Each structure stands twice: as C-alpha cells, then as structure tokens.
Amino acid sequence: MDIRTLNADIAVGPQITPADVAALAAAGYRAILCNRPDGEGVDQPGFAEIAQAAQACGLPVHHLPVESGKVRDEDAQAFGVLLASLPKPVFAYCRTGTRSATLWALSQATRLPLPEILQRARSAGYDLQAVVRRVANGGQMPGDAVDATHDVVIVGGGAAGVAVAASLLARRRDLDIAIIDPAEVHYYQPGWTMVGAGVFKPEVTARTMASVLPRGVRWLKGAVAAFEPERDAVVLDGCRVVGYRQLVVCPGLKLDWQAIPGLPETLGRHGVTSNYRYDLAPYTWELVQRLRGGKAVFTQPPMPIKCAGAPQKAMYLSADHWRRQGVLDQIDIEFCNAGAVLFGVADYVPALMEYIAAYGVHLNFGHQLVAVDGPARRATFIHTHADGRKEAILKDFDLLHVVPPQAAPDFVRVSPLADAAGWVDVDPATLRHKRHANVFALGDCANTTNAKTAAAARKQAPVVAHNLLAALGHAKGEARYDGYGSCPLTVERGKIVLAEFVYGGKVAPTFPKWLIDGRRPSTLAWYLKDRVLPPMYWSGMLKGREWLAEPALTE
Fold it and tell me: Mind listing the pLDDT tens digit for each residue in 12-67?
C-alpha cells in the first residue's frame, strides 16, 4: 500500500483494496475518502466493497467521485468541507492519488501559501504545476488571459535585479522592462556589517525602491506566486499573470529564522542579534558597546549563505572595539561554524588566523546552532565530529550574533526552474537556464558556486544583459561569467583583508599587489569599503555603469 502524507490531517495514495482498510486503521487513519468513480478500471474494487471493509473497522468512509482531468471548483469545495468534518487523519485515494492531491491543494488555496501547497504535494510525489493558477486564484478556475506582456520581466528589485535592468537599458533604451518586487525599500546590505560596528548609520543603507529603479522600468509591486516557463508567464499573488519574452530571476534568498526554535521570538532581545537584518544591526552595536565582560558567541550556518565572510566580520569588529576599550581580556569569544574551515579560499586564512589569535577567539568547527533560549541566555549546538558522531552542546552567552540558515525563496524552490536543491538551475558561465532558453538567473538565487555577494552580482549583471540581448537578436557574441566574488573581511576598524576570487577558489585581485595585497590587512582596502564602494553601488552598479565589470565576450 502506498501512503503519501501531505500534512498531519491527510495522506493520499493510489487505489486501495478492501484488504488494505484494516492496515489503514492500524496505521492510525480515522476516515477514508474515495475520489475515484466506480468502473474506471477493470481491476478496480467498487466503492461499496471499500465501504463494507471500512464499516467493519469502524472507519467513516465517503465517496466524492471526480473524473480524471476534470476537477471542478465545486469538487474542491466539497472536498474541503468533507476534510474539515471528518475525524483526522484522513486517507484519500483515486487511481494514482493525483486527483486527491489536486482536490486537497485547491481546497487549501485560501488557507496555506501556494509554495507550501506545492512543496507538500511535491514531497508526496505529485507535480501540481497544472493547477498553479487555480491555487493562486483561491482555488477557483481563473481566466486564461495574460494581464500584461513585456520584453523582459525581472523578478526581484534588489542589487542584482536593478543592476541588470540598468545594464540592459544602457545597451538598449527602447526595451520594455518590468521589475516585480513587493518591497517599498531597497537596501545596501553590504553596509550592515558597518552598521553593526557603529561605522555607518543604518539610514545610509536604505533608499526607497521608487528612487533606485531605472527610469523607464515598470514596477509591478507584487509578490511572485509561481513560474510557468512553458507558457512564458509569471503568476503573482492574486493570480495576476505577467507574460515575457525573456525572464530574469533574481529575488535573492530566504533567511530562515524559523528553522531555529526559539530564535524568532528572542531576536532583538536578551542579547540576541544579527547583522543580517536592517533593524537588528544597530542592536549589535548597542550590545557590543554595552558588553564589558562575559561570553560572546558568533555563529555561522551550513553553506550556502550570502556573504560567507559576514559572520566573522561581525566578530572581528566587535573584538576590535573591546580591545580598544581595554576589556577584551574580560570577554570570552567563540566562533561556532557549522563548516570545517574558517574561510573557503585558503590563501586568506593565514591573515585571518593572526586576528583569531590576537583576539583570543575560540574556534569551534562543525558546530551548528539548533535552538536558542533567549531569557535563559543559552544556545544549543549540534557538534558533528570528524567520525560523523553528533553531540548536543549547550552554551551560555551574554551576546549571541546569529546568522540563520539560508535557502532559495519558497516560490523558487518549488518551481520548474529549480534544481534538486531548490536553486535556479543555470549554466555557470552564461547564467542562462539549462532547460529554458529564455530564462536567466543571477545573484543569490542561482545555483552557481560563486560566493553570494553584491560583488558577484555586479559582475553577473552585464553578462546577463549581453546574453539576453543576444537572445533577442540585438547583440553578438557570448558573455561569460568567471565566478568572481569579493569579500572585504573587516578584521579591525581601519583594516580589511580584501578577498577576491573566481570559480575554484582561484585568487583574482583587482588591484596590483603593491597597491592592495589582498592576503594582508590593508588600510586602503578599508577606505575602499568605507568610502568608495557605497557610491559605486548607488551611482555606478545601479545606474548601469559597469566600472571594472565589463564582460568578456566570445564569438
């Protein structure tokens, strides 16, 4: 018997036999719902046979027959009413389970987010892309009309999205471009490390979305519910459908605060903070100034994450402040990294290790944060030993800087564009989707192996712009991205180890060694981070000025 769980209330599966009913009862199911009409197959037991077996086991059973491929709105509504009224959990079945899964999805359209519905169905082995629009439309059959069609639709108005729009318009002003993003504010996220150290004011890292979008770009202020690449369409919440000739996907990634029990309710309180959120970075600085003794714990989750150096940047700048205040010896600093190395590119590790030693930091590799008790100021970690053995460890703290686990956005992860891990599946050089030729992706949501940094997006945007225009017949040759990423590691106030590298972890410095030696802490690199990069971001990258970012072309 094939039982596929959708949630705690319901499981679905293929046709059952009367003999299976007792096994369902023994497994804890308390009701049966049949969605298959009698006589659909020559080997199919009739509903009456199933009902007789269910009665013998004391299970209520209902028949809601639905023709294959013809699930009506009223069928889904009736399914929802039955599901609500029956004792739980319910087992529903049809020929393969697909109709039952579809009925459940449509009945839950107003109760659960679309990505969650699709994910639960997919986990059970059912692909419900064919009913995405209906689920997005509250479980009702929508019209087939597309609300609008554009030459280029860009999903995401962050660094990558605005940069690629600006690069496209710098090459061809007459393009009809739309950016889809529900956010009112655009953030310069690389600045939040500096906010957490009291170097930047938080407000200098934020501008209104309307003020940063390139002139002429249409802003569709809404959230994406689903992708329909076979129809060249994007479905927004509320079932608004936007068509495209070319699609660019760059909505960033999801910070999964909820994945750590106890964390969401204690963030911003009880000494728990994170520079990964605009509203919390000032609290980091407040805690750092206030701490005169005790234990400070800094965490890093499993990869991939955005800006893999940021977890330790917060630690170095905090330790530097405590050293300047003369209290460093009174503070026990721990860095709990779920990974096995301090930094992924070995060339930069020696310089970082000098600071680890100077600040007296205790390195704990293979330590993943799994729970936080804010009022008790206690964190739980799982330590994975070299032999694979796992051990739970409790750590008290006075300051806890948390970097949450990170994943592709839900609507990306459950879409036809995603790879097995949930990231948009693109060619690492051209950034074109591997299966859909008119789809590109860049930034944090792509499955490329580069570091997920703004510097990577700055290099990727011109590559996507050129290749997209080539696909439209407006450019020649092919642009290729080499995996460039940059991580200015703020090891102390006034000095930075400027890590720059491409695919494979190969060091790729922008400046000559006599000017900035990225393997050593540099005052000039700090000046670059503090004074040069913010205006380069706002007035260069977001305006289509490809300073030090022009793509290499091949025929």
Answer: 999 999 999 999 999 999 999 999 999 888 789 999 999 999 999 999 999 999 98
In a domain, 142, yes or no: no
354: which 2 tokens? 């000098």
- If asked whether residues 390 and 444 sit together in one domain, one would say no
Q: From the CB of residue 213, how many other CB atoms can be counted at a distance below 10 Å?
A: 21
Residue 310 lies in a domain: yes
Q: Is 336 a catalytic residue?
A: no
The token pair at 113 is 């987010």
State the burial class of residue 437 (Cβ atoms within 10 Å of its Cβ: 0-12, 13-18, 19+): exposed
Domains held by the chain: number: 3
Residues 283 and 399 in one domain: yes
Phi first, then psi, for residue 537 (nearest 5°) are -70, -55
Q: How buried is 156 (Cβ within 10 angstroms: 0-12 exposed, 13-18 middle, 19+ buried)?
A: buried
Give dist(CA 400, CA 267) in Å, integer.
10
- Whether the CB-CB separation of 492 and 315 falls below 8 Å is answered with no
Among the listed residues 94, 336, 445, 487, the single catalytic one is: 487
Of 406, 422, 442, which one is at a domain's C-terminal end?
Answer: 406
In the DSSP assignment, the letter for residue 96 is S
DSSP state of 232: T
Q: Annotated catalytic, 307?
A: yes
Q: Are 178 and 266 in contact (CB under 8 A)?
A: no
- Range of 342's domain? 257-406
Task: Check whether residue 241 and residue 266 sit in a common domain.
Answer: no
Per-residue model confidence (pLDDT) at position 238: 78
- 247 with 231: CB under 8 angstroms? no
Q: Which residue has the tokens 């460890």?
A: 393
Torsion of CA 157, 163, 164, 168, to 10 degrees: 120
Helices of type H across 397-549: 410-413, 454-471, 523-527, 533-539
Q: Judge if 265 and 398 occupy the same domain.
A: yes
Residues 130 and 178 in one domain: no
Q: Which CATH number do you get for residue 186?
A: 3.50.50.60
Ranges of the chain with pLDDT below 50: none
Question: Is residue 443 within 8 Å of residue 250, measured between CB atoms?
Answer: yes
Query: Domain check: are 399 and 412 in the same one?
Result: no
Q: Please identify which of the residues 34, 94, 250, 307 carries the catalytic annotation.
A: 307
pTM (2 d.p.)? 0.90
